[in-house]
Amino acid sequence: MLSTAVSLPKAGFLVKQPGPRTLILDIGRYGYHHLGMTTGGPADPLAFRWANRLCRNDQNTTALEVVGGLVLESTITTQLAVCGAKTPLTINGRVRGLWRSHRVKPGDVVELGFATEGVSAYLAISGGFKITPSFGSTATVVREGIGGLNGNKLEVGDCLPCGSYENSEDNRCLKLPKGYRPVYGHHAMLRVIPGYQQHDFSRYQQRRFFSHEYKISSRSDRMGCCLEGPEIRPNIDGILSEGICLGAIQVPPDGQPIILMNDRQTIGGYPKLGSVLSLDLGQLAQLKPGDTVYFEPITVDDAHNILHLADSYFKKIELLVC
Amino acid sequence: MNITVAGENSLIIYFDQEIGLDVSAGFSVEASAKVHQAVEIITNSLGDVLVDLVPSYASLLVIYDVFRTDLHSIRPQIRELLTDIDQAEKSEGQLIELPVYYGSESGPDLALIANKAGLSIEEVIDLHRSQEYQVYAIGFAPGFAYLGEVDERIAAPRLATPRQQVPCGAVGIADRQTAVYPSVSPGGWNLIGLCPQRMFDPEATPTMPVKVGDRVQFKSIDRETFLSLGGEL
Question: Are A177 and A191 members of one domain?
Answer without folding.
Answer: no
